[in-house]
Automatic annotation (TrEMBL):
Domain of life from the UniProt record: Bacteria
Signal peptide: none
CDD domains: ABC_6TM_exporter_like
Annotated protein name in UniProt: ABC transporter ATP-binding protein
Family annotation (SUPFAM superfamilies): ABC transporter transmembrane region, P-loop containing nucleoside triphosphate hydrolases
Length: 623
């Protein structure tokens, strides 16, 4: 019995198929699956031909074995038996060779398909706008890349060859059996429904149990990742109820244990039943066929052939009975992958986009109105873990914002929380597109510029500057892969970080980020400033940290920011009086509008909104 048709494989398929019983196959999806399979078509053809050959060989051995028995009972010459034995051996050798070849082919095709799908999805996801990532659950996305891609691959390496070779094998087996004795064949097949009906019902139960176990496992790992992170553990220690949490965890783990036992038992029952039914059918063949042979209606060899063929009948029949569901579950995996590939990135490079003009760059907002895109425009319900996506478009958060930052000037944005300052900053780097109006750099609308030139021209430092869990060197060279150590140290010196990095045991090779070496808030921001200095963009957007830093750190950050703004066109979301004072222009943003603009002294003197803000936010920084 081949691997494909071992009782466990048959069981696995029965269970896999149950989830998708009621789905229908969509023609368009099939067409696209074929498109993905096309590059592998020559390998696929060889693979299918070999699958058919293997099925053919499977019928030959029982026939030869029958001939051996007939030669013995018929009193043939010894040489006949010897040649038959040689033929049986030859079939076995060829079968083994084909088996290995087929495994190689199926893994080449399967793994090739995984590669194609994975790279396609990865590349596509990278092109998605920020709005997509702010909504999507990362776990759901990663699982799409891992599990569904593998599910889709299974369609080719298992299901396709399984269906083809099982149909051929079944047809041949039945034809040969019927030719020998249709009565025995019919009777032995009568037992099949007795097995198939409960087997399908059991498949459903197994699928339900396994789904429940998967849910418990998922919630246990969510609980663990949330509670066992530094932040989560602190919260539990301070305010949590550790006993209740342990009890809940134990309840879930206990249910997983119970399901584990049930599943093991159900599986055993299934496999035993399959083995038992074919053993019973075998007894029937021996009894009925043997009686016929004694009565002279059959040869002894025919009985042997029938018995051997019978063992090849049940597994393919069970597999084919579940084939529709089998194919469906593969198609569903494909659909889930296609669902991601079909998301059109909201922000794309225009055909014919050009590089921003060289030289000093001005930044201009021209009557910009903006509303955040709705969930429906940017994401998928299945990736947000919600049933239906929010179709409401966001409310307009910028209502006609206009200003200009001349080349080399610094403009400070101030305003209360939620006024729209970060939104303005994000529009410059085209993390979002304006709803109406335009954002221009050096006179070119950012929507007409190439992504590469936007990346090159604009540098942004956010409050919580993200660092990858990699070495300091890798985090820095992200923006300039060819940078020399000398250039790295120069950037670090200007960002007032040199002495910090020099003091680290591994220097530039110290791993920082998520779980690496802990940098303080101020150090972190200076490191992201060093990254910006290395990139040397012409336009910088800075979001000053609101968090209070001690005076030394504060002075360092201030100096680093000064370096970052020096000689560049700068837009700063300012929280520090010193930045605001030295700005060429201050824009006071409230409720998505610029309500006042001017320099510090004149705005203060006019006694408007800026004067209020100064009193509440900045006056205490006055030394
Ligand atoms: N991703 C988003 N999707 C929908 N609405 C958003 C999103 N981000 C911000 N908003 C909304 O846009 C408005 C402006 O927010 P923004 O973050 O630009 O304010 P801000 O002035 O930078 O505030 P803060 O100083 O607190 O950072 C707020 O009403 C906010 O709720």
């Amino acid at each position: 019995m081949s691997m494909q048709n071992s009782p466990y494989m048959v069981l696995w398929r029965t269970v896999q198929g149950q989830d998708v019983k009621d789905r229908r196959i969509n023609r368009e999806t099939l067409r696209r699956i074929v498109t993905f399979a096309r590059p592998h078509r020559s390998l696929l053809t060889v693979f299918l031909v070999i699958s058919v050959l293997t099925a053919l060989l499977g019928v030959v051995t029982p026939i030869l074995a029958g001939d051996v028995v007939n030669a013995i009972t018929g009193g043939d010459e010894v040489s006949v038996v010897v040649w038959l034995a040689v033929a049986i051996a030859a079939v076995a050798v060829v079968d083994a060779a084909l088996g290995i070849l087929n495994r190689w082919l199926s893994s080449r095709i399967g793994e090739g398909l995984i590669l194609d799908l994975r790279t396609a999805v990865y590349e596509h996801v990278q092109r998605m706008p920020i709005a997509f990532f702010t909504r999507t659950r990362t776990g759901a996305l990663v699982s799409r890349l891992n599990n569904d891609v593998i599910g889709a691959q299974r369609a080719f390496s298992n299901t396709l060859s399984g269906v083809v070779s099982n149909i051929v094998s079944l047809l041949l087996t039945v034809v040969v059996m019927v030719t020998i004795s249709w009565q025995v064949t019919a009777l032995s097949m009568l037992l099949l429904p007795i097995f198939l009906v409960p087997a399908r019902a059991m498949g459903g139960r197994l699928a339900r149990l396994q789904r429940e176990a998967a849910q418990h496992n998922a919630s246990m790992s969510t609980q663990m990742t949330e509670r066992f992170s530094a932040g989560g553990a602190t919260l539990v220690k301070l305010f949590g109820r550790p006993e209740t949490e342990s009890a809940e965890f134990a309840r879930r783990a206990g249910r997983v244990r119970d399901i584990g036992v049930r599943v093991a038992m159900l599986q055993t029952v299934f496999v035993t039943a399959l083995t038992l039914v074919s053993a019973l059918a075998l007894a029937l063949v021996y009894g009925l066929g043997g009686a016929q042979a004694i009565l002279g209606n059959l040869d002894a060899g025919d009985v042997v052939t029938l018995a051997l063929l019978l063992t090849r009948l049940y597994a393919p029949l069970t597999m084919l009975a579940n084939a529709r569901m089998d194919i469906m579950s593969a198609v569903v995996s494909f659909e889930r992958v296609f669902e991601i590939l079909d998301l059109v990135p909201l922000i794309q490079e225009r055909p014919g986009a050009r590089a921003l003009p060289p030289g000093p760059a001005s930044l201009e907002f021209d009557d910009v109105r903006f509303a955040y895109p709705s969930a429906e425009e940017v994401s998928l319900a299945s990736l947000e873990d919600v049933a239906v996506l929010d179709s409401r478009g966001g409310e307009e958060v910028l209502h006609g914002v206009s200003f200009t930052v001349l080349p080399g000037q610094t403009v400070a944005l101030v305003g209360s929380s939620g006024a729209g300052k970060s939104t303005i900053a994000q529009l410059v780097a085209r993390l979002y597109d304006v709803t109406s109006g335009a954002v221009r750099i050096g006179g070119t609308d950012v929507r007409d510029a190439t992504f590469a030139s936007l990346r090159e021209t604009i540098g942004m430092v956010t409050q919580d500057g993200h660092l990858f869990h990699e070495s300091i060197r890798e985090n820095l060279t992200l923006v300039r892969p060819e940078a020399t150590d000398e250039q790295l140290w120069d950037a670090l010196t200007r960002a007032r970080m040199e002495h910090v990095i020099r003091a680290l045991p591994d220097g530039l090779d110290t791993v920082v980020g998520e779980r690496g070496y802990r940098l303080s808030g101020g150090e972190r921001q200076r490191l992201t400033i060093a990254r910006l200095l290395l990139a040397a963009p012409r336009v910088v957007i800075l979001d000053e940290a609101t968090s209070a830093l001690d005076s030394t750190n504060e002075a360092y950050v201030q100096a680093a920011l000064g370096e970052a703004m020096e000689g560049r066109t700068a837009l700063v979301i300012a929280h520090r009086l010193s930045t605001i004072r030295s700005a060429d222009q201050i824009l006071v943003v409230e409720g998505g509008r610029i309500v006042e603009r001017g320099r510090h002294a004149e705005l203060l003197a006019s006694g408007g909104r800026y004067a209020e803000l100064y009193e509440t936010q900045f006056a205490d920084q006055e030394v």
